[in-house]
Amino acid sequence: MVAGRRPATTAQVPEIARYVLKRLGLALITLVLLSMIVFAAAQLLPGNVGRAVLGREASEEAVAEYNRLHGTDRPAVVQYLDWLGGAVRGDLGESLAQTGVPVWDIVEPALVNSLKLAAFAFVLVVPLGILGGVLAGLRSGRALDRGITVVGLSLAVVPEIVTGLVLILVFAIWLGWLPVTAQPEPGAGALTQVRYLTLPAFALVIVLFGYIARITRAGVVEALEADYTRTAYLKGLPHRTVIRRHVLRNALLPTIAVVATQVGYLLGGLVAIEYLFNYQGIGLMVLQAAQQKDFTLLTAGVMVVGTAYLLVTLVADILFALLNPRIRFGVAE
Amino acid sequence: MTSVPVPERRSEAAIARRERARALVRTPSFVLGASIIVFWLACALLGDRITPFDPLYDQTPEISASPSAEHWFGTDRLGRDVFSRVLAGSRDILVIAPLATLLATMLGAGLGLVTGYFRGIADDTISRLIDAVLAIPLIVLAVTVVAALGSRSTWAVTVVIALVFAPIIARTVRAAVLGEAQLDYVEAARLRGERAPYVMVAEILPNVMPPILVEATIRLGYAIFAVATLTFIGFGLQPPSPDWAVQIADNYPYLADSWWTVLFPALAIASLVVAVNLVSDSVQQVLER
Fold first, then answer.
1. Phi and psi for A112 in degrees, rounded to 5?
2. Alpha helix (H) ranges present in chain B?
3. Cα torsion at A288, A291, A293, A299 (round to 10°)?
4. How far is Cα B229 from Cα A283, in angstroms, rounded to an integer?
5. Inter-helix orientation angle B154-181/B120-134, to 10°
6. Distance from B284 to chain A by nearest Cα, in Å?
7. The domain defined by B90-240 carries CATH number 3.30.200.20
8. Of A52, A157, A271, which has the smallest distance from its Cβ to B143's Cβ?
9. Per-residue pLDDT of chain A (333 residues; tens, 9 = 90+)
10. Chain B contact for A306, CB < 8 A?
11. A180 to chain B: closest CA residue
């Protein structure tokens, strides 16, 4: 797979271009469907938006006036197209709870905060997970392998609220090494921010480690048993070279795809983590929007999270294709 | 699985089932996980009959007392015995999570059967829709739907978790059905003139049960995860319920002063999800052997 380096042919360029285009088209369709689902769930499901926002005691006239003012008395399709037209131009409407404030002004700082936390967690978990998976794979079937696999997967299924709480209790309250909340003073330096983000990031690391380690392990085990590895040994290559050049290179390919899907879990996990650590990110924002029945803000928040997930999986798929000779040369599909 | 339904098939299947059950009982992780689940089930069923104090009302004079010989896990700020509350706290989640999983499995299996069997435009459309739904993280989607429904009741949480899990199960079932639908016994049933619903339910469904079962046990773990998280952030069960996540949410602000009111329910949740995960992992290994 890796050993054979074919000469570049003219057919190879359109092949990969066609794949990328097809993947882009599919992503665009999914994005449009996503917008319909999000809009339906957050803005149509409440039924009467005015009644939902103003409450049961409000008079009929007040509710009707509210709906007229916010355009929520129009047919669903008109509302959706109007919203979509705005969203394409970058206008996500105004917040219902904080009257007159454009939604994007609330979403943007929250998104930046969440991306900081997610990036920090990712920088920690990807090397750790791959290292754990490679160690387990090379020692497959032995105690170290069972240990890494069972502990990793057990930690992965424990809710973030539990791991987060235990981390807070041990490192913030008992040992006093790190702050209890994740939100530093405004204008804090980079190092201070890192200090505040360490505990929530580790709560995410604990959840994600098991998945990344498991898939890396599976790749390593498969590559160790493959014919090309045996050939490499029979050629007389030293153990280290075989592991580095043949086993790891092939084993790490599927890891890319899994790391990408983990971004979805990561963004989902942010709701609980951000709530627990009182961190003003997109997860906490979505939760607050839901609690305050701020449906325009809620729609925007969910849409941003979903779009981020689609983007990351798209990039991962294309990266996977570029690295995988079977797709690169158009053998598969 | 053989493809032609002949009389011996049932007994063969029964033998295979017994062998699988025996292999399962010999797996240490299955035994450990199952024991923990049985323990919590017993607590849920026996309830206040085995708790040393009343989990809801017993107001002992000791408020926020740290763990002692009398109160193993201490008392909370209302003077309730935390050990009794942890024992009683398994009841609600052990109803909600399995119920949500059951609903999701039925819905997802139905959706997967239909999309995998008919293919074509319906399949393409539904598969795309499922892809789009899966782009939204579980908790975010659940929070959105719960808020939009305008209800924070336990029922709303159960239904929402079922709805959110159904597409994931549908995708797995669809893949399994796609493989089966190509086989001869399906073609034979079709040529006999059987209707599509009969072929799906009576012919294909029994043969895709193993992946459905595996998927259901995996989803059960995530359902407990989701119920606990949603409860913690304020949806579903409310105080004074002794539910573990309610206890955590209720006492979290006082973590620094009385850690025992939070740590023990948190460890209880962890023990249950890890146990379910151990069981689903072993079931998966035995069925896929």
1. -60, -45
2. 8-25, 28-46, 82-88, 90-118, 120-134, 138-149, 154-181, 184-191, 196-198, 205-207, 209-232, 244-251, 260-287
3. 50
4. 13
5. 140
6. 14
7. no
8. A271
9. 444 445 545 555 667 788 888 888 888 888 888 888 888 887 777 767 777 777 777 788 888 888 887 777 777 788 888 888 888 887 778 887 777 788 888 899 999 989 889 889 989 998 999 999 989 988 887 888 888 888 888 888 888 889 999 999 888 888 888 887 777 777 777 777 888 888 999 998 998 888 888 888 888 888 888 888 888 888 888 888 888 888 887 777 777 777 777 776 677 668 889 998 888 899 999 998 888 888 889 889 988 888 888 888 888 888 777 777 666 665 543
10. yes
11. B256
Query: Which chain A residue's Cα is nearest to B222?
Result: A157
Work out the minimum CA distance from B30 to partner chain A, whole angstroms: 12
pLDDT of residue B1: 47
A94 φ/ψ angles, rounded to the nearest 5 degrees: -110, 150
Chain A nearest-CA distance from B47, in A, is: 24
Question: The domain A10-46+104-332 belongs to what CATH superfamily?
Answer: MetI-like (1.10.3720.10)
Boundaries of every domain in chain A = 10-46+104-332
Question: Does B259 reach chain A within 8 Å, measured CB to CB?
Answer: yes
- Closest Cα in chain B to A35: B132
Pseudo-torsion of CA B222, B227, B232, B237, nearest 10°? -170
Which residues on B lie below 8 Å from A165 (Cβ)?
A: 248, 252, 255, 262-263, 266
Indicate if ipTM > 0.90.
no
Q: Using the beta-carbon criterion (under 8 Å), do B276 and A157 form an inter-chain contact?
A: yes
Cβ-nearest to B233 among A157, A265, A271: A271
Closest CA to A107 of A284, A329, A290: A284
Interface of A with B in 64-103 (CB under 8 A): none
What are the boundaries of each domain within chain B? 90-240
Residue B9 reports pLDDT greater than 60: no
Task: Check CB contact under 8 Å for A309 and B139.
Answer: no
Between chains, do B129 and A29 touch, taking CB under 8 Å as contact? no
Write down the pTM of the prediction. 0.84
Distance CA A333, CA B179 (A): 17
* Nearest-CA distance A217 → chain B (Å): 16
B138 with A271: CB under 8 angstroms? no
